[in-house]
């Protein structure tokens, strides 16, 4: 059943709302952290945690089940311990929200990716039944952090969501509010429970190089379509090993989005795509499966080897897609890669990995295919 949430802020512009929730400050106030005894703390695991495909995980915020450790490549298993794509949704009337969390690795950031995205939190507030607005970042300064996300809010009971770190594991997350305020799990995203969009891919899906966790394209599309998502992006991996198809076939998403070409050459595409898709189709005869070409390297127009890499892997994917359709496999869809990042060269951190601009552009392209598919899915 959908939760009932009165939107007491409907007459307030998003910009004014954000400034008010932040006490008039343009950035989250973190100078003075309330003492622990001044707040009532809630373990986020008791709220609505989404992005977990399996419950039988070694640690709560892992992305693959514990039994996958013996089945998938070691690099995939290690990366699955990152909490990419996971989020917590909750409703509160608190005027202050404080988070404390710990990440599993001391490597908080990367040379090409900020610590706020690698290891930090990203907070949004629902401003209408179909719209979300960014609100605050929980900056990661150490393995264990405490951050005031919002302070001195306008009165009202609102729904929030917090995205967890993209490239680090989450050991724990707790939310603190003032005594007397209420905090409870959010309900379904829309009328009735909605199946998630399952994304499978590479470092781009994993989140490189978003500035914060909510700017990954899977997260953008989740907010756009008001639907949960599962992020199975594995940096340097996502190569369509059949063991991943077996695991993904255990889940029941609204749509499978397979976006692995950035880490697969033409030979791998030719050998792995068709068996992978057939395994999913065998388990889920009617679930749409979307094949996505790789983004264009932004320097490919001057580097023939990069252009050839795009061309050969795309040709192999298009051939696999056509072979499957000729063989009678239904419910297949295809997204070309040429315009995923635009054509002005401004949308990446390094010619390959998107910036926030690139993720927004990629989400727009994917939405054109996913939107019509999701209208007919629970």
What can you tell me about this protein's structure?
The chain is of the alpha/beta class and 378 residues long. It is built from 9 helices and 15 strands. The longest helix has 23 residues, at 304-326. The radius of gyration is 21 Å and the shape is globular. It starts with 13 loop residues before the first helix and ends with a helix. Residues 1-12 and 22-31 have low confidence and may be disordered.
List keywords for this structure.
378 residues; alpha/beta; six-stranded antiparallel sheet; five-stranded parallel sheet; 22% strand
Average of the residue pLDDT scores: 92
- Overall body shape: globular
- What's the helix-strand series? HEEHEEHEEEEEEEHHEHEHEHEH
Structural class: alpha/beta
Task: Summarize it.
This protein has 378 residues and is of the alpha/beta class. The chain is built from 9 helices and 15 strands.
Spell out the blueprint of helices and strands.
Blueprint: H1 14-21, E1 40-43, E2 48-50, H2 74-79, E3 87-92, E4 97-103, H3 115-119, E5 121-128, E6 131-138, E7 144-150, E8 158-163, E9 170-177, E10 183-185, E11 197-201, H4 203-206, H5 217-225, E12 229-233, H6 242-249, E13 255-259, H7 266-283, E14 289-292, H8 304-326, E15 332-335, H9 356-375
């Amino acid at each position: 059943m959908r939760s009932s949430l009165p939107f007491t802020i409907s007459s307030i512009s998003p910009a004014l709302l954000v400034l008010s929730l932040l006490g008039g400050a343009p950035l989250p106030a973190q100078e003075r952290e309330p003492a622990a005894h001044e707040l009532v703390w809630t373990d986020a695991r008791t709220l609505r945690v989404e992005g977990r495909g399996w419950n039988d995980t070694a640690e709560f915020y892992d992305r693959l089940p514990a039994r996958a450790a013996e089945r998938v490549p070691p690099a995939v298993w290690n990366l699955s311990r990152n909490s990419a794509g996971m989020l917590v949704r909750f409703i509160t009337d608190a005027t202050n929200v404080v988070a404390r969390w710990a990440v599993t690795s001391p490597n908080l950031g990367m040379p090409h990716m900020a610590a706020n995205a690698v290891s930090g939190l990203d907070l949004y507030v629902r401003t209408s039944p179909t719209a979300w607005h960014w609100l605050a970042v929980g900056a990661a300064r150490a393995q264990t952090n405490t951050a005031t996300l919002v302070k001195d809010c306008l009165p009202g009971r609102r729904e929030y969501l917090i995205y967890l770190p993209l490239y680090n594991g989450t050991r724990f997350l707790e939310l603190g509010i003032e005594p007397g305020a209420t905090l409870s799990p959010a309900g379904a995203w829309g009328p009735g429970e909605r199946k998630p969009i399952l994304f499978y891919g590479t470092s781009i899906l994993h989140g490189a190089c978003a500035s914060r966790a909510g700017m990954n394209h899977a997260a953008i599309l989740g907010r756009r379509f008001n639907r949960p998502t599962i992020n199975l992006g594995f940096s340097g991996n996502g190569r369509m090993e059949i063991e991943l198809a077996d695991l993904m076939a255990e889940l029941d998403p609204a749509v499978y989005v397979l976006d692995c070409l950035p880490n697969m050459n033409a030979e791998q595409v030719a050998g792995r795509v068709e068996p992978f898709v057939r395994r999913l189709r065998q388990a889920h005869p009617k679930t749409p499966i979307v094949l996505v070409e790789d983004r264009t390297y932004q320097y490919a127009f001057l580097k023939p080897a990069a252009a050839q890499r795009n061309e050969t892997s795309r040709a192999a994917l298009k051939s696999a897609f056509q072979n499957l359709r000729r063989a009678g496999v239904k419910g297949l869809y295809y997204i070309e890669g040429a315009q995923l990042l635009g054509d002005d060269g401004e949308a990446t951190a390094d010619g390959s990995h998107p910036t926030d601009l690139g993720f927004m552009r990629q989400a727009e392209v994917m939405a054109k295919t996913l939107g019509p598919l999701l209208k007919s899915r629970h």
